[in-house]
Design goal:
It is built from 22 helices and no strands. With 438 residues, it is mostly helical. The longest helix has 26 residues. The chain starts with a helix and ends with a helix. About 7% of the residues have low confidence.
């Protein structure tokens, strides 16, 4: 091994160990790793610059600004209030409908503000109806995660996998290309949550809930949970509806989706233009736009992209993937897909989504090429499994929020989330080859 390979390997091990240890913010860990690689010469400054200019970073930052403009206009609050009115009219079924609507919104908007705004509403409505909030808060978080799997915009994981696959020579995914698979996974998981999760939680007994502010405090720190999706404080304040800005921000958001869907321009370009347009139209000020950028998640992804570049440039990635793929080259593609999904799912329960995307995406492409099949189904498996982590309360920030508010135990998430992991795993590996043939 060369000196650069040894340094890169040591940095990789240290970053993964720090993320599992979970005592330091994940974005700080990723940037520290990038700094070590840069100062030791394992990567060049121009390569680091390229990581921070990644299309995934530009697209995410722009979408954060657009979503924050919609939030400041009161649009999301207004939608939540209408959902509350529906819940009070039709009872528990209405709460489930609100959970489903939040999951649908998560296909296009960031999960965090949706859960932050809707969780206390669902809790209060459930209490008013003398229903246990525990039956609904955990499914709310899971529904938001499942909804995010339905489009390329749904999670940062999807955008990052798409970006890294493009670097590996694969064509870009369309916004709705993964939607058929995502809908099947989401529908399967949703039926499980509706029919089974309540019974499993009832067996665990009822614990007292804690105030929303405690949930927000817990979500910001420590490390992995607090940095994976960014601080939720910016979204906790209620906003009155301002019809003009709400309409304009919604129209810009829909236009971004339509332009990107019809390949008028890449997603990053469409989202960036939309964010700038909102500033020019004074729907959101420049200072407010900066507040909505969520630098913690952007820096986490940028740092992990630098690590991915180092793995690629030093040849460490090709050597490692070659060794792994050689041991799997006799497998049937479907079995290889099942194993890849399982490995990605396991790592996602321990590490941030960005870390998993950086580590697994090159392996997915190399595995498909060795088997002589299309990399497309393997990349979709990484996208779905990279987000669908349900078995721990700390794998996703929305899980942390409801974990505190609902007074759940750690084992509640294992009890409900582990079967959901298995069910969505089966649904995904059944649907992926149908829509993305080998």
């Amino acid at each position: 091994m060369s000196v650069d390979q040894v340094i890169t390997l040591l940095v990789l091990v240290a970053v993964v160990a720090a993320l599992i240890w979970d005592k330091i913010r994940a974005d700080v860990v990723a940037l520290t790793g990038a700094a070590v690689l840069l100062i030791t010469g394992a990567v060049r400054p121009v390569e680091v610059q390229g990581a921070f200019a990644s299309p995934a970073i530009i697209a995410l930052a722009s979408l954060f600004v657009i979503a924050y403009a919609m939030e400041l206009s009161g649009l999301l609050d207004s939608a939540i209030r209408r959902g509350v009115d529906l819940c009070r009219r039709i009872g528990g079924v209405g709460i489930w409908l609100l959970v489903g609507l939040c999951g649908g919104a998560s296909a296009f908007l960031n999960n965090t503000p949706i859960v932050v705004l809707s969780a206390p509403v669902i809790r209060d409505v459930a209490n008013a109806m003398k229903l246990s909030p525990k039956r609904f808060l955990m499914p709310l978080s899971y529904a938001a995660v499942l909804g995010g799997c339905c489009t390329l915009l749904g999670t940062s994981t999807n955008l990052l996998v798409n970006d890294m696959a493009t670097v590996a020579g694969q064509p870009r995914f369309g916004i709705f290309e993964i939607t058929p698979v995502g809908l099947i996974v989401a529908a399967t998981g949703g039926l499980y949550l509706l029919l089974v999760s309540g019974r499993l939680l009832d067996r665990a007994g009822k614990n007292a809930s804690v105030p929303m502010q405690a949930a927000l405090d817990e979500a910001d720190e420590p490390g992995l949970a607090g940095a994976q999706l960014g601080s939720s404080r910016a979204f906790a304040e209620g906003r009155p509806l301002r019809p003009g800005p709400a309409i304009v921000s919604a129209l810009v958001f829909v236009s971004v989706i339509l332009f990107a869907s019809f390949d008028v321009a890449p997603i990053a370009a469409c989202a960036f233009a939309g964010a700038v347009l909102l500033i020019l139209l004074r729907v959101i000020t420049a200072d407010e736009a900066y507040q909505g950028l969520r630098p913690d998640i952007l820096m986490l992804i940028a740092g992990m992209v630098v690590l991915g570049i180092a793995l690629e440039e030093t040849g460490l990635a090709s050597a490692a993937t070659g060794a792994i793929v050689d041991s799997l080259d006799s497998l049937h593609p479907l079995l290889a897909l099942i194993l890849l999904y399982g490995a990605t799912l396991f790592l996602t329960e321990l590490l941030s989504n960005a870390t998993v995307a950086v580590l697994i995406t090159p392996l997915a492409v190399a595995l498909a090429e060795t088997l002589g099949v299309s990399p497309r189904p393997f990349l979709v498996a990484v996208m779905i499994a990279g987000s669908a982590a349900f078995a721990t309360p700390f794998g996703y920030q929305t899980n942390v929020l409801v974990y505190q508010m609902g007074g759940y135990s750690y084992m509640d998430f294992v009890r409900v989330g582990l079967p959901l992991n298995l069910i969505t795993w089966i649904a995904a590996v059944a649907a992926i080859p149908f829509y993305f043939p080998f």
